[in-house]
Amino acid sequence: MIARVPATSANLGPGFDVLGMALSLWAEVGLLAPGSDVPEGAHHADQHHLATVAFRRLGGEGELWVRSPIPMGRGLGYSAAVRVGGLMLACAQRDGAHSETVLANAHEVLTHAAALEGHADNAAPAVLGGVVATTGDRSIRVPLGFDPSVVVWVPSFSTRTDHSRTALSASVSMADAVFNIGHVAYLVAALAAGDLGALRHGTDDRLHQQQRFAAVPQSLAAYEAALAAGAWCSWLSGSGPTVAALCSADMAQTIAGSLGADGHTKILQIAATGATLH
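Above: the chain's sequence. Below: its structure in token form.
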């Protein structure tokens, strides 16, 4: 059995711990058959690996392997992807591996993945695909009125979410809270309507991005460069340091080439489907 799970970009600007997007970059987590070798390009997931810890959480038995192009510690949802993969395999092993397993256990997988992650903004799109809004134990996909390219700029250095969160204030003003509530609503409406001109305003934020950009000026430079090159909108992906931008397919290469030499770029799509089992 192999679980295939997409990378994700969380927050999308103002949607702190609330919004997430699945991306067309896929991690694979597999159950290793007794006596077989780890597949080419994969590595054995030992007992401390995030995938195996999640697998054991739901009673999974056996050894796992992981093969993933999703960079670790870059804000593209590596931890959520491999945790979701481990949980899916445990459910499939327990209930019998069949195509309905993913749908039947989506809520269970998402609940446990969110508990392990500490929040559901990466886990929800990894399970469901598309753009997802999540609150508490509930998640729902946002309908999309367009099909953009997603350019991501991935720097050579990493950050840790727990460390990044320490830079954030424990309280916010009423004005900033209302600002972000309004911009999340505006962004969701713009995505559903396909209103490209509204996306840049919709991704404005006052809760976390500026504090995080202060610690990673290279990411701020990439964010500003993406907008200057014609991206519809841009944001710090999760806690960073990766920066993501939405644009038309014919502008993707131009925008990717404008983002600086401190990292590499990937031109992706929004993944229409979430985690699958094979």
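DSSP finds eleven helices and eleven strands in the chain.
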